[in-house]
Amino acid sequence: MNLTLKIWRQKSAQDKGQIVEYKVKDISDHMSFLEMLDVLNESLVAKDEEPIAFDHDCREGICGTCSLHINGEAHGPDRLITTCQLHMRTFKDGDTIFIEPFRSKAFPIIKDLMVDRSALDRIQQAGGYISVNTSGNSQDANAIPISKPNADESMDAAACIGCGACVASCKNASAMLFVSAKVSQYALLPQGRIEAKDRVTNMIKQMDKEGFGNCTNTGACEMECPKGISLNNIARLNREYLVASI
Questions:
Q1: Which CATH number fits domain 3-110: 3.40.47.10, 3.10.20.30, 3.90.950.10, 3.50.50.100?
Q2: What pLDDT, in 10s, does the model give residues 175-221?
């Protein structure tokens, strides 16, 4: 395939960015989207031009770092996949593809397509954990009975990889789906009930401090989430926060 790429280039957070057009030729439809960008970067380096900066790590849909806005959609036009799992067979020969970083006040641009998503880490650090005595007195994993529905829902929430697609796709740049997933994975388990009130209040406080918007139930976050995290978790987050506030 021969493609036209319109890519956001920005040297740093302080510089003014712009869309720059590139042409790529002979792209195999078996390539992943990131492999296509690798081909482009190799050609730029060969011409002594600055390669395009973008985040990536595992390239297996696990780490969540490969976050790009492709043709106006977080992670591209496919569903339940990350950018690294998007393949070029999704596009057609001659297509024009717009590639931009995730847009949010809480995700400042570092360079080109790379953004700083450490705000999500700080929310997690505010309460997304349980305090466990690991000095040789920890309980066996099967010592506490947990109902199958609760265990399944907790595991579904824990599937969140913190990529930030929910923030990028929300008109309010809300992180509610992310926070609700991190709260739900503990709220559904007895081990997580001990610190439940502090957890939800601290995480929401940090979320607001980071500058994320609020949820208005648009549903774009669930649609664009590569792990299919349900909006039901936001309802659970609201209940947890209400109980904690009372």
A1: 3.10.20.30
A2: 999 999 999 999 999 989 999 999 999 999 999 999 999 999 999 99
DSSP assignment, residue 143? Answer: S
pLDDT tens-digit readout, 102-128:
999 999 999 999 999 999 999 999 999
Strands 96-100 and 3-9: parallel
3-state SS of 112-137 is: CCEECCHHHHHHHHHHCCCCCCCCCC
117-133+143-245 folds as Fumarate Reductase Iron-sulfur Protein; Chain B, domain 2 (1.10.1060)
pTM here is 0.94
**Contacts (Cβ under 8 Å, ≥6 apart) of 239:** none
